[in-house]
């Protein structure tokens, strides 16, 4: 069409502008790529919260009746709430998890939740019910870097003190946020009450407890106006020293020092945090220090700054008694993925060059191959303008579109090449513009149909929507960019690659004799390899079109092949999944013993599991958390790993060497098989948890039985377990 010819003519004739556009695409692409935040997982805005309400000494039934039911009823009235789930525990604690609709503003959702709880719930009527705490569950809190601190000279609590010093240093690192320390016990005052002295003074233990609770806090009581100034009045009665504690008045004339011994120490030990590093050949008590990044920061940059800071710390004499090992670096995973994109890019360009060399020659092949980097440069700049990030789904989208990027350029270059071979009077520019005009509408329609195919991805609901958002953004953007390159850049550059060459089937051979030209014979012009293929294809096509039997055979052959391909699904000849497996060289093993099991007994079983796993040759390290929530990763965020704080629970992070012949999936299968016997023998539940290929989920397969009738719920559970055992 003339419209597309005019587009090509505009860029071909305006050489200065075209070179400026090419330079702009190149530099803006590099700028966009360098400025886009790089991370392993996409940014998912799913406002989710845990409302934790302690109810001292209550049973699970009491917790459900007095807290959980009322909490669920009121929270369900909040606009934008997507789902509510809850757990009522003996002891007792109510944990209500609230998920808002994907895309809701995080801060606004938290304000709504806080307002509803504070205004409508009458939980303080019972003195044993504590103030509800709202804990935000957000991917921004996920640690991008985790370090394990161990020492042969220091105790676990002394290592923790060193970790606290390190956290203060890391706060100065640009981009670092949400520094957490996992393991060890916090400092506390130990108050050992003498029962005999209580009896002599006629004081109960509950009285002592209530006085301590009242005297260990800070409260704002109001304002005091003095002239033109207004002063806030705050009562600070927090216990800071042993002397403060001794002077607390329990009753008239009796202080805490009269009835109890007070000493400085640590909270009671109820957990283990262990590192088993293969290079050490033995397990050690460890303190884990983790960092997250600020929203919008580049993961690689923040981790690079943190690693440099740790390098400086390693030369500091104050920390020479501790060993620091990095056990998680998501920036490294992201960089490997980006490197994989670069490798795929180079491979695709090489394949395009190789294939087109046989059909169109070196110049045409090189011209088509240039469309790939130009399109990608343009896509990266558009991604930067669209506030996108470079993550594994972004890379998946770009790798998916690599094969599509060259389609438009291939069609344009092939047609320009054909027009250049025609024997007519047109000049170079006219041949180029006519060639683009012939195929312009076809390219436009094929691109539009391809873009439309990916637009429904924008309508995916739930967490999968924003998780797959980069695919819905980058593939259509890449296709549109490749179309622009085919209309503008490729025709412009083709004038430097091709020259008009008159073409005929044969030409006269001219010899010179005594200064005179003598036509002695005619010789056929050399036929190209591509032209030979064209002739053979035309011959085959004529045979098919002129032979009805051959046409019927061909149709049945194609249709039969289609039907056979469908049978690959039920017979599992082809493995189907939406996204490629996440092979991160890490996985989790979780252990759940019977409730009431002590942390020491749980640790004993966990060490058996740990020893079994450590026998695999490619294991690098095992990080063990018993009675303590592990350092949560993206996978564990919505699986509730942060709530694995019971003494009967243990979590093991398994990290193995990056060997190409062992994937995470293969390791998971082997580990699951090796530890299954321990689970049966010790009567514990063991799970091997891999990173999912998509967004994190509670589990791969979930059945929830909802009923307030305990007996009915247990009967249904037993029936379902029998069915699942056979699956």
Fold blueprint:
Layout: H1 2-13, H2 15-35, E1 48-54, H3 60-75, E2 81-89, E3 93-100, H4 106-120, E4 133-137, E5 145-150, H5 156-170, E6 176-182, E7 187-193, H6 195-200, H7 205-214, E8 218-226, E9 229-236, H8 242-246, E10 249-251, E11 254-255, H9 256-259, E12 260-266, E13 272-277, E14 282-285, E15 287-293, H10 299-313, E16 323-329, H11 330-359, H12 362-369, H13 371-385, H14 392-421, H15 428-454, H16 464-467, H17 469-497, E17 506-513, E18 516-524, H18 529-545, H19 548-566, E19 586-592, H20 599-614, E20 619-626, H21 634-637, E21 649-656, H22 664-682, E22 685-689, H23 710-725
Antiparallel strand pairs: 1-3, 1-4, 2-3, 5-15, 5-16, 6-15, 7-12, 8-9, 10-11, 13-14, 13-20, 17-18, 19-21, 19-22, 20-21
If you had to describe this structure to a student in words, what would you say it looks like?
This protein is of the alpha+beta class and 727 residues long. It contains 23 helices and 22 strands. Strands 14-13-20-21-19-22 form a 6-stranded antiparallel β-sheet, covered by helices on one side. Helix 14 (392-421) packs antiparallel against helix 15 (428-454). The model has no long low-confidence stretch (mean pLDDT 82).
Provide key terms for this protein.
six-stranded antiparallel sheet, 22 strands, elongated, 20% strand, 23 helices, alpha+beta, four-stranded antiparallel sheet
């Amino acid at each position: 069409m003339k419209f597309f010819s005019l587009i090509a003519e505009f860029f071909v004739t305006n050489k200065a502008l075209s070179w400026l556009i090419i330079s702009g695409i190149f530099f803006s692409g590099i700028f966009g790529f360098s400025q886009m935040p790089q991370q392993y997982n996409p940014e998912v805005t799913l406002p989710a919260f845990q409302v934790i309400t302690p109810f001292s000494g209550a049973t699970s039934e009491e917790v459900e009746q007095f807290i959980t039911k009322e909490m669920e009823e009121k929270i369900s009235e909040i606009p934008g709430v997507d789902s509510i789930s809850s757990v009522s525990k003996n002891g007792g604690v109510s944990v209500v998890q609230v998920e808002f609709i994907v895309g809701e503003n995080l801060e606004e959702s938290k304000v709504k939740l806080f307002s509803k709880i504070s205004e409508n719930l009458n939980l303080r009527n019972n003195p044993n019910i504590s103030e509800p705490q709202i804990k935000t569950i957000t991917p921004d809190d996920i640690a991008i870097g985790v370090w394990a601190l161990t020492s042969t000279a220091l105790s676990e609590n002394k290592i923790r003190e060193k970790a606290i010093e390190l956290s203060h240093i890391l706060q100065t690192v640009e981009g670092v946020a949400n520094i957490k320390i996992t393991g060890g016990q916090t400092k506390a005052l130990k108050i050992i009450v003498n029962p005999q002295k209580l009896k002599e003074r006629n004081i109960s233990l509950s009285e002592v407890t209530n006085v301590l609770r009242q005297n260990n806090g800070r409260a704002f009581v109001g304002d005091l106006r003095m002239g033109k100034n207004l002063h806030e009045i705050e009562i600070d009665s927090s216990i800071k020293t042993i002397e403060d504690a001794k002077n607390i008045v329990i009753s008239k004339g009796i202080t805490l020092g009269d009835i109890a011994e007070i000493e400085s120490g640590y909270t009671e030990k109820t957990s283990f945090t262990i590192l088993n590093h293969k290079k050490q050949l033995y397990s050690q008590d460890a303190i884990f220090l983790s960092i997250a990044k600020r929203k919008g920061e580049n993961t690689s940059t923040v981790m690079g700054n943190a690693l440099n800071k740790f390098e400086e710390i390693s030369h500091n004499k104050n920390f020479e008694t501790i060993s620091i090992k990095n056990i998680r670096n998501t920036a490294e995973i992201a960089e490997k993925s980006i490197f994989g994109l670069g490798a795929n890019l180079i491979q695709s360009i090489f394949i395009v060059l190789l294939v087109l060399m046989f059909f169109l020659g070196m110049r045409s092949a090189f011209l088509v191959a240039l469309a790939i980097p130009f399109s990608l440069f343009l896509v990266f700049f558009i991604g930067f303008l669209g506030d996108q990030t470079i993550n594994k789904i972004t890379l998946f989208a770009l790798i998916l579109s690599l094969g599509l990027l060259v389609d438009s350029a291939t069609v344009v270059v092939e047609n320009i090449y054909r027009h250049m071979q025609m024997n007519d009077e047109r000049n170079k520019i006219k041949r180029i513009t006519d060639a683009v005009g012939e195929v312009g509408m076809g390219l436009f329609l094929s691109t539009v149909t391809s873009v439309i195919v990916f637009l429904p991805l924008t309508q995916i609901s739930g967490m999968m929507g924003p998780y797959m958002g980069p695919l819905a953004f980058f593939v259509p953007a890449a296709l549109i960019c490749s179309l622009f390159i085919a209309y503008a850049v490729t025709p412009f550059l083709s004038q430097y690659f091709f020259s008009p060459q008159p073409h005929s089937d044969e030409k006269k051979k001219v010899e010179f004799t005594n200064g005179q030209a003598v036509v002695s014979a005619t010789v056929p012009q050399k036929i190209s390899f591509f032209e030979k293929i064209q002739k053979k294809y035309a011959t085959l096509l004529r045979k098919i079109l002129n032979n009805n039997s051959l046409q019927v055979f061909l149709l049945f052959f194609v249709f039969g092949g289609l039907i056979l391909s469908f049978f690959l699904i039920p017979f599992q000849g082809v493995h189907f999944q939406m996204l490629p497996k996440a092979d991160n060289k890490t996985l989790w093993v979780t252990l759940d013993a019977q409730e009431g099991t002590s942390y020491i007994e749980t640790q004993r079983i966990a060490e058996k599991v740990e020893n079994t796993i450590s026998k695999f040759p490619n294991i690098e390290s095992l990080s063990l958390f018993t009675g303590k929530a592990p350092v949560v990763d993206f996978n564990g965020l919505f699986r509730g790993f942060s709530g694995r704080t019971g003494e009967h629970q243990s979590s093991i992070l398994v990290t193995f060497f990056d060997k190409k012949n062992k994937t995470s999936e293969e390791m998971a299968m082997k580990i699951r098989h090796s530890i299954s016997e321990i689970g049966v023998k010790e009567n514990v539940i063991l799970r091997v948890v891999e990173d999912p290929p998509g967004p994190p989920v509670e589990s791969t397969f979930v059945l929830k039985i909802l009923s307030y009738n305990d007996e009915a719920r247990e009967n249904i559970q037993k029936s379902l377990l029998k069915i699942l055992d056979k699956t």
